[in-house]
Amino acid sequence: MESLGFLMQGFGIALQPENLMFAVLGAFLGTLIGALPGLGPANGVAILIPLAFTLGLSPETSLILLTSVYAGAMYGGRISSILLNIPGDEPAMMTCLDGYPMAQKGKAAEAMAISAIASFIGSLIATIGLIVMAPWLASFALTFGPAEYFALFVLAFATLGGITGKNPVKTLMAAAIGLMIATVGIDGSTGTQRYTFDVLELFEGIDFIIAIVGLFAISELLFFIEQHAGEGKPMIAMNKMTLKLKDIVAILPTSFRGGVLGFISGVLPGAGASLGSFISYTLEKKILGKKGNFGEGDPRGVAAPEAGNNGAASGALVPMLTLGVPGSGTTAVLLAMLISLNITPGPLMFTQHGDIVWGVIAALLIGNVILLLMNIPMVGIFVKLLSVPPKYLLPVVTMVAFVGIYSISHSTFDLYFMVAFGVAGYFLRKLDIPLVPVILGMLLGPEMEKNLRHAMQLSDGDWTILIGSPLAVTLWCIAIAGLLLPVIVGPILRRRMSAAKAATDA
Amino acid sequence: MTRHMTLKLLTAAVVTAMSAQAFAFEPKGKVDCIAPADPGGGWDFTCRSVGKILSELDFVPGNVQTINMAGAGGGVAFAHTVSKRAGDEQLLVAASTATTTRLAQGQFPGMNQDQVEWIGALGADYGAIAVSKDSPYNTLSEVMDALKKDPKSVKFAGGSAAGGWDHLKVLIAAQAADVENLPKVSYLSYNNGGEAITQVVGGHVQAFTGDISEIQGFMESGDLKVLAVLSEERLPGKLAEVPTAREQGIDAVAPNWRGFYIPAGVSDDAEQYWTTTLDSVYESEEWKDVMTKSGLMPFHKSGADFDAFVKAQIQDIQTLSKDIGLIR
Questions:
Q1: Cross-referenced PANTHER family, in alphabetical order (chain A) (predicted)?
Q2: Given B41, B76, B197, which is nearest A200 (Cβ)?
C-alpha cells in the first residue's frame, strides 16, 4: 500500500506541464517510429536519446520522454502490420496474421481500434504488475551479491536468443562481438588500460550510446540508400469504423490473458516482447480452437499478440529498474541512458531516486491513456504519415543522430565512431546477425566480468561461492533451462510460426 | 581552525589590496570553461556554477561558456589545453583530485602536471569510510586493527577503478595507521558510488570508501554507519557528528578538491588576474550559497600555494601507487 502513496507522488511529477508535454510528444513520436517498417522500439529510443541530451532535459523528463517513446512504438508496430502486412517491428509480426486479413476484408479501422484497445489493456495489466512487483523485487534485490549477479548475467545470456531467435549461432556471435567491444578501456579491477593503443578517446571505453545510434540508425540509412526505397509501398485504405460495444467485450478475455502472459515473458531477462506476443497468440488459438477463425481475420487474433507485446514491454522494465539487468533490447538502451544520467538502477534507486522511478511509472500509466486516445480517433494521421516517403524521413533521423551525438561530448571522434558502427551494423544485418545481442553483450559483459572477479575477491579465490546460496543455485538452474529449452522446443515453435505465417500469406 | 582563519584573513586582505588597483590584464569578450566530462558531473557543475558567478559579479565582460569535453577521465581536455590552447588567456579548465591521480599514475600518456598552470581550488568533498548499520565495527581504528591482523579481513567497495581516488583513500588511511602489506588490502571497484553502497548495505562487502557527499543520504536514513571522515577538522552542519580519522589517531586527510587550471604560456598578468579572481569568488556570498547547497566543504588554495599543493599531492599519490605496485 506504501506503493500507492509513492505512485501519487509520481503522478505529481508526471503531470507537471513540461513532463506531460514530453510524454505526449514521446507517445506521438513512438507510435510513428513503431509504425515505420524497420524502425523498432530499440531504434526509436536510441535515436531520441541524443534529443534528450540536446534539449538538456532533467533526468526524470528524459526518462519520461523515452519510456513514452517505448510504449508508443509498441502501439505503432501494429499499424503497418495491419495495413501493409509488414510488421513495424519484430513483436508486431504476429499481428500480421489476423490484422492484414481483417484489413483485406475492409475492416482496417476495426482492426486498428481493437488492437489499440488490446494494447491498452495489455499495457495496463503489466504496469499494474510493475507497480506491485517492482518494489517487492527491489527490497529482495539487496540479497543479490556478486555471485548471484554473476548467475543472473549468465541467465540473461543463456536466454538471449529467446525461443523465437532464428539462428542461435549468429546470436552467440553477435553477443561475442558485444563482449569484445566492451573490453576496450580501463579495467576497473586492476586499473589497466585494455586495447586503447594510447588513444585518449578510448580510455573510458566505447560509449554504448554511440554504438547504439550507429548500429541502428545509421545502418538503417545505409539500407535505405541501397534499396532506393524512395517512395512508400502501396497500402490498404482505411474504411469508416463501425465498431460496436459487443465487439470490444468479445476481445476482453483474450486481452487479459495476453497481458498477463506478456508481462511474465517480459520479466524474464532476455526473452522480451516478441516472445510475449507469440505465446499469447498461440495460447489463444489453443484455447478457442475451432470456435475462432484464426488466420482469416479473427479480431481476437489481433487482440492477443498486441496485448502480449505491450504487456511484455512494461514487464521488461521490472528487472531493468530493480536489478539493473535489462529484459529486452529496448530496456538495454534505456539502461544505457540511465547510466549516462548518473543514475544507478537497482534496489537503491527506489530509495535514492524514488521520484524518478515513480514519475516514470506514473508516466507509463498516463502515456497509455494518451496513446489509446491518440490511436483510435487519430489513427488516420499516422496512416498519412506512414505514406510520407522515407526519402524525407530518413534524412531527418540521420540529422537528429549526428546533432545529438555531437552535443553529448562535442567530439568529432565520436561522430566518426558512430559512422563506423553504422557501417558495421549494415554488414552485420546483411549477414543476418542480430544487433540487439551486440548491445546486450556490450552492456552485460563488463558487469558479468566485474561480478565474477568481485565474487572471487570476496571469497579469496574459492569458486564454490558461485553456488553458495539457494538464490544463486536457482538462477543457475533457470539459466541451464533457458539454454536447453530453445534447442528442444525452439524448432517446433518456429515451424508452427512459419506455418501460420505461410497460411496467411497464401 | 586557526590556520584556516589566518589563511582566509590573508586572502581577504590581499583581495582588498588587489581590488583597489587596476589590473594589467582583463578578459575581453567570451571566456570558455572546459568541463572535461559529460554534462551532469562534478566538473560540469564546477564550470557552470563558477562561470555564473564570474559573470554575475562582472569579473568577465560577457558570459562564461561551458564546453563539455569528455574522455580519458579528463585526459582529452588536458591534451587539448596543452596542444591547442597554449597562451589562451580566456580559458579555465575544471579539475579535481581525479585529475591529479591520473597525472600521478601516468594515465595521460606523454603529459605531466608542469604543462599547465594550476590557479586555485574553491572547495572540497572529503573522503569517508563507512560500514553497514549491522557491522561489528564502530570506529576506523577497529577496522585498521583488523587489517593489521589480516589485510584481507575487511574488504572495501568504492566507485573508482582500482588505483583511483576511492581506492587510494583506504590506502592513505591504512598507511597512516601503520598497516603493513598494503597491496593485500582488497578493493572492489564499482561503476559509481551508488552501486558500491548497494553492496555494502546488502551485506556483501564489509566497508564503503567514497566521498562524504555520497554517503550523507544513507547516513541520515540509517543504512550506513560512517566511521571516519578524512578531513583536518570536523565538518560543519549535520556532518559535525562524524569523527575525523585524526581524532582516532590516524593522520589521514583526503580532500577531493574542486578547482581550475589554465593553459601554459599565458602572461603573468593574466595568471595573477585569474588567481585573485578565484580568491574573490571564494569569498563571495554567492559562492558560499552554492557550497552550502551542493554540500561542498571549505577548502581554498590559490596561486603558488595551490601549485605547490597539487605537486605535493601528485608526489604522494605516485609514491603510494608505487608502494602498492600499481605503477612502476
A1: TRICARBOXYLIC TRANSPORT PROTEIN (PTHR35342:SF5)
A2: B76
Distances (CA, A) of A310 to A24, A178, A197, A262, A361: 18, 27, 45, 7, 15
What per-residue confidence (pLDDT) applies to A506? 47
B107 touches chain A (CB under 8 A): yes
Name which of B38, B47, B78, B221 to mutate to probe chain A: the one with the most chain A Cβ atoms within 10 A of its Cβ.
B38
Q: Would you mind telling me the total number of residues written for chain A in this entry? A: 506
Long-range own/partner contacts, residues A83-87 (CB < 8 A, 24 or more apart): A83/A108, A83/A235, A83/A236, A83/A238, A83/A383, A83/A386, A84/A37, A84/A233, A84/A235, A84/A236, A86/A37, A86/A233, A87/A37
Ramachandran sector of residue B87 (left: φ over 0; alpha: ψ -120 to 50; beta: rest):
left
Closest CA to B173 of B98, B228, B96, B97: B228
Q: What is the pLDDT of residues B90-139, one digit of tens each?
A: 999 999 999 999 999 988 888 999 999 999 999 999 999 999 999 999 99
Query: How far apart are alpha carbons A170 and A505 in whole angstroms?
Result: 27
DSSP secondary structure letter of residue A410 = -
Q: Tell me the DSSP string of B289-312.
A: HHHHHHTPBP--EEHHHHHHHHHH
As beta bridge partners, residue B117 has B262
Per-residue model confidence (pLDDT) at position B134: 93
- Burial bucket for residue B237 (CB in 10 Å: 0-12, 13-18, 19+): exposed
All domains of chain B in start order, with CATH: 2-124+256-323 (3.40.190.150), 125-248 (3.40.190.10)
| Closest partner CB to B326 (pick from A189, A191, A201) | A191
Contacts A137 to B, Cβ<8 Å: none
Question: pLDDT (tens digit, 9 = 90+) per residue, A287-317?
Answer: 776 667 787 888 888 899 899 888 988 888 8
Give the model confidence (pLDDT) of A195-227 as tens digits. Answer: 988 888 888 888 877 888 888 778 878 887 887
CA distance A26 to A20: 10
Residue A140 or A311, more confident? A311
- Closest chain B residue by Cα to residue A56: B39
The pLDDT of residue A57 is 79
Contact A65, A48 (CB under 8 A): yes
Number of neighbouring beta carbons within 10 Å of residue A132 = 12
Alpha-carbon distance of A439 to A445, in angstroms, equals 10
Q: Find the angle CA(A383)-CA(A387)-CA(A390) to the nearest 5 degrees.
A: 130
Q: What span, in angstroms and rounded, lies between the C-alpha atoms of B166 and B158? A: 6
- To test the contact with chain A by mutation, choose from B80, B105, B204 the residue with the greatest count of A C-beta atoms within 10 A, namely B204
DSSP B115: G
| Nearest-CB residue to A188 (from B72, B76, B189) | B189
* Site of grid cell 578538491: B257
Residues A106-121 have pLDDT tens digits of 888 888 888 999 999 9
Q: Domain map of chain A by residue range?
A: 2-505
The pLDDT value recorded for residue B4 is 56
- Rounded to a whole number, what is the distance in Å from the CA of B228 to chain A's nearest CA? 22
Full DSSP string of A83-131: HHSS-SSGGGHHHHHHHHHHHHTT-HHHHHHHHHHHHHHHHHHHHHHHH
Distance from CA of A52 to the nearest CA of B (A): 12
**What ipTM was reported for this prediction?**
0.79
Q: Which residues of chain B are under the pLDDT cut of 50?
A: 1-2, 14-21
Residues of chain A with Cβ-Cβ distance to B185 below 8 Å are none
CA distances from B218 to A351, B195, B212, B223, B225 (A): 10, 13, 10, 5, 9
- The overall average pLDDT reported for chain A is 82
CB contact under 8 A, B195 and A344: yes
Interface touch A188/B40, C-beta < 8 Å: no
Q: Which pLDDT score is estimated for B21? A: 46
Rounded CA-CA distance A40/A312 in Å is: 15
Residue B268: which residues within 8 A CB-CB, separation 6 or more?
none
